[in-house]
Amino acid sequence: MSRLTGWWSRRGSAAKVELYTRWSFHFFTVIEIGSIALVPLSEAGDGLTARPLGLPLGLALALFVCAHAVLTAVLSSRALDWALDRRDRPVRLATALVVLTAGGALTVIALRATGVLTDPAVGTAVVTGIVVFSLGGLVLCVRRPRRMLYVVPAVALATGGAIAALGLHPAEGLGSAIGILLGGYGLAAACGFSGWLMKIVWELERSRDLKARLAVAEERLRFGRDLHDVMGRNLSVIALKSELAVQLARRERPEAVDQMIEVQRIARESQREVRDVVRGYREADLRVELEGARGVLGAAGIDCAIASPFSPSFGPAGPALPDEVQSALGWVVRETTTNVLRHGDARRCAISVREEEDEVLLTVENDGAGQPAGAGTRECSGLGSELGSDRGAGLGSDRGAGLGSGGGSGLAGLRERLAAVGGTLEAGPAGDGTFRVAARVPLPRTPGTSGAKVGR
After folding, report:
1. Which of 133, 257, 316, 367 has its CA 20 to 30 A from that of 446?
2. Does residue 427 have a pLDDT over 80?
3. Directed axis angle between helix 286-299 and helix 323-343, to 10°?
């Protein structure tokens, strides 16, 4: 049972809606077989004593309805794939279903007219049933479902006319026409709405993924712009002075040494500026990350509640934390926010920051029962994975002063960052379908920070 529930919880919202829709159409197959295919067997039971053809006729009609139900289910499945742009429109299957339905309905009507099929209830049930279920499957193959508003009454009128034309009682034709009209409209509307809803949910899923990709591209452009602003002028000056030094060296002028010294100075200054850019890009600020988590989760339709003196709801004022503590906790907020978006199916997320016994406690809880960071990935790539890989890579190092190490992504990367400031990380289910991540970082007791309270 746990495997079944885990398999279901790991699927995204769009995949769940699609699976539910497909199984609903498969259940229509069971309904058609159970409610219509068994009706001719009642005629067969009477025919065992009345006519020799009673049993074969009843079995033949039952098998025909079963074959019709299976074909309708296959057509519905292929039509759903076509609606999601996974395959071509199943025109041949739709044509086969129309031919089978029309041929079967005319055959049953002819059997009633010739007296081979004596029970009018059996004929009406079979004809009405196969036509109604066919309309439910065919609506998925229509580019403009509104056309079914005209198709359903036309089919009902044609069926009733065929029954009357073959000399049967007008009441039988009227009953079949009314049944097809009501049942056809109802089933076509239900099937059409289900297919439309599934398509819309997948479009929302793709839009969400596209939004994350655009955010990654925007972040990359911003970082590239910062590097261009920092390095563009310096590289131009280095190229110019290097060329000047070459010309002076060819003339054996002593000024060439001065030019190369200047080039060396500019190169070292460029290293320092790049290091500052990368450090600002890689370090996470807790206040900024909390505001970003609220915005990103809110844009994804997830209700985000933040209880922290650093959140915007508490105003600009708040206690100061050491930079290394803020950076470590900021990375926890960033990574867990990413995992809420990528690995779970959350509707609510709660983030809190408070002080407990001389340490800062950051908790992130969501009701999506998602996977922890690093435990797996889905098909769509989220914003956090892209940023994590980009921000975790340094652009260079200088002798005696590196850009930092560690980093990584997922729980392992977070534990490394927290371990650097003496912190710990716990992650796991918290009951009631929630997943909880808790990060604890001890507060250094210095004269400047001993009186600070992070919040209760």
Report:
1. 316
2. yes
3. 10
